[in-house]
Amino acid sequence: MIRTEGVTDVTEETFAAEVLESALPVLVQFTADWCGPCRQLAPVLGEIASEEADRIRIVQLDVDRETAVSVRYGVLATPTLMVFRAGEPVRSIVGARPKRRLLQELEDVLAPVGSTGPDRTDLDAFPEVRI
To answer: How far is the C-alpha of 35 from the C-alpha of 110, rounded, in Å?
Structure first.
């Protein structure tokens, strides 16, 4: 499997403890050794794992070795990135992404639980439109 610093390997045996029972949201990369886009994505995930360690965990699961988990979550392509929060999948992304785009797609997942999104107090800066 592709080794990336900050990204933990999980198996069917460790999936529940590492992903489903995690206090933090967990991004699971469903990957394979033969997957070119997975290799491209590895350094991006390593950077995010390092920079966002207090907000999200990143793990990888080999789809060829751990077929039961892949089938359970309907993974049909690699790389599939699936975010789990409180033991439930909340987001699925298929394909490699540049870091900036991936962070944008994960923005709401990285927000604290109960957060209503960005602070809307900046709306006063926009003029009122009248028709």
So the answer is: 27
Which of these is catalytic: 32, 35, 49, 82? Answer: 35
Verify whether residue 35 is a known catalytic residue: yes
Model pLDDT, residue 4: 83
Q: The sheet that has 57-62: what strands, in order across it?
A: 8-9, 57-62, 26-31, 80-85, 88-94
d(CA 116, CA 119): 8
> Under 8 Å CB-to-CB from 94, ≥6 apart: which residues?
77, 79, 80, 81
Tokens of 125: 């800066």
Indicate the SS3 state at residue 40. helix
Give the pLDDT band of residue 131 (cuts 50, 70, 90): very low
Active site residue 57: no
**pLDDT above 90 (res 41):** yes
Q: What are the tens digits of pLDDT across the range 74-93?
A: 999 999 999 999 999 999 99
- Active-site position among 2, 27, 38, 81: 38
Q: What's the confidence (pLDDT) of residue 5?
A: 84
